[in-house]
Amino acid sequence: MPLMSRAEIVAHPLYPAIERQIAQHLIGIHMRTPRMSRLKASHRKWLMTQSVFALALRRTPDDPLSGLTATRFVETVMRLGAASRNTATGYLAELVAYKFLRDVPDVPDKRVRVLEPTELSLNGLRSWFNGHLACLDRLDGGNREMTSLAEERIFLIAQPIGADIMVGDPMWREPPDSIGHFLWSDLGGIILHDLIARLDNVDRAAENVSCGPVTLVELSETYQVSTTNLKRMFKKAETEELLCWEQPRRRGDLLLTNRFLEDYFNWQSAKFAAIDQSYHQALASLGINAENAAAA
Question: Is residue 61 classed as helix, strand or coil in its secondary structure?
Fold first, then answer.
């Protein structure tokens, strides 16, 4: 199918439905493998995670010292302005400790430590990628997900391409302030997914959209987020009149404002467009015709 632009994606009548779909998919990954939440605990860590995988998956057999090293990773993070040198180094060590990364065996130069993803993290990110392809398919009737499942090299080629697009895009790298105080907080992204997953039949012209009854205690217990952290996230959004509860003391249905939702939808559309572009470029590099893949 033809490449979908960001504008086409965000304006599609089914866009709120696929946002709910991907939110449910990502919550599912979180629930099945809670350790995976470390890869995207905050937007800063998610930017670093994408960079980690992009470096690792670009390793080539003819250059055994290529791929993911601490030096290359720190240079990438510093260039993006995603974190400090110490934060980047600490995060890499964290991924090794959590067994998301491991040493590449038989590296000829013992002074260089080359790392690669473990099956656990690779399968998690592959599921993330294919889940987004399924959503794009729903928008235009394509067959991206099935094509990717049938040809595993698509993901391996597409991930570095999509990562470069996303981390290089100011819109994706710097979320709007309205949603940023969630995304820059630990596990704030999964809290936003939870709110979006509760939406049904979104009227994008409405001033407010209901998530149904939401309590901070429930969110804290479900996602193991401290209530103090949750109160800080929601308090800022309430103060800026981006969301509110129907009743005092955060009781009743939670209402999200149109501005809050549209800022989130527009920000997310950058990710969907990047993934679609990376998928099509991967097909081209493998010599797979997109139209034939869609018809398969």
Answer: coil
